[in-house]
Design brief:
The chain is 14% helix and 53% strand. With 299 residues, the chain is mainly β. It has a domain of 86 residues. A hairpin with a 2-residue loop joins strand 1 and strand 2. The termini are far apart.
């Protein structure tokens, strides 16, 4: 307890541990405002307790060594300034890649917006790609009406990707030598990457994922089954996208007039990539006939 001039001024706990999700220092001011200092906190548990009403009804300042997102990913040097509703700005770094963002109100609970000026650093830190450079990133995650489910969007601009194993497999199958050289050298430039997905306890449903640059256009949809660690994706890759993009008018973003259908199935570290070379001769307007319907996220 902190006493100033004989009056109660708050509480200062240098070490406070709650289960396996909260291990920090804590200061409680006279007005009830909280300051969480150093240590580690698990994000999911922290948000659940604030939203369920068991958290504080006052403002909270946070200065953590590490905010744990999941067993593989965490934010270091995490700083946040949250109001009585648990909303406000935050900042930190994922393996040195800077991020910033905010918790904001939605009709179904708190939403999260994350931005970064180093998209490549964030993607490499989270094992999405092995090598990349540059790019900006914006991600938004919002709750749904179903417990444990989150909807998300990701927008990446002006990134250069190198040595992507899945892309290498696809390009190898269609023998696009120039594009293979790009991936192995300075990298393949992608002007825009956009993903719409839903995260559930059992799987990640990718409603749509598109990427395009001067050399290539790609569209993907499908599923990642978490417990099995299995992918079940389908897509279209269109080489020379800058000259081929008229197909997007008929088939959708990321697909050109000439495109190769492909599937990606199996374990995430060793997926099986199969490309249908004959699909290049299918007019873009009719290409969807030979693919299963893309997932539709019910609102």
């Amino acid at each position: 307890m902190i006493v100033s001039n004989g009056a109660y001024a708050g509480v200062n706990l240098t070490k406070l541990r709650v289960g396996d999700w909260f291990n920090t220092g804590l200061r409680v001011a006279k007005n009830g405002a909280l300051t969480i200092t150093s240590g580690t906190v698990k994000l999911a548990d922290f948000l659940e307790r604030r939203q369920s009403g068991s958290g504080s009804n006052t403002s909270t300042e946070i200065a953590l060594d590490r905010l744990i997102i999941d067993p593989k990913n965490s934010v270091s040097n995490f700083r946040a300034s949250l109001n009585q509703k648990g909303l406000g700005p935050f900042s930190g770094a994922i393996n040195g890649a800077p991020i910033a963002g905010r918790l904001y109100a939605t009709p179904l609970g708190s939403g999260v917006e994350v931005v970064s000026t180093d998209a490549a650093g964030v993607l490499m830190a989270t094992d999405v790609v092995k090598r990349a450079t540059g790019g900006s990133l914006k991600m938004q995650i919002t709750p749904t009406s179903r417990k444990g489910e989150l909807d998300g969007t990701i927008a990446i601009r002006d990134i250069r990707v190198q040595n992507s194993s899945v892309l290498l497999e696809i390009l190898n199958a269609i023998s696009i030598v120039g594009l293979l050289d790009q991936l192995g050298g300075a990298g393949m430039s992608l002007d825009e990457v956009d993903v719409t997905f839903r995260n559930t306890p059992e799987q990640v449903v990718i409603e749509s994922a598109t990427a395009f640059g001067p050399s290539v256009g790609i569209s993907v949809d499908g599923y990642f089954f978490k417990q099995l660690g299995q992918l079940d994706l389908q897509g279209v890759i269109s080489p020379i996208y800058a000259l081929n993009a008229v197909g997007a008018l008929f088939s959708g973003k990321g697909q050109g007039l000439i495109g190769f259908n492909f599937t990606i199935r199996g374990e995430t570290d060793k997926p099986r990539v199969v490309v249908n070379p004959l699909s290049a001769f299918t007019p873009s307007l009719f290409r969807e006939i030979f693919r299963r319907p893309a997932p539709k996220l019910e609102k």
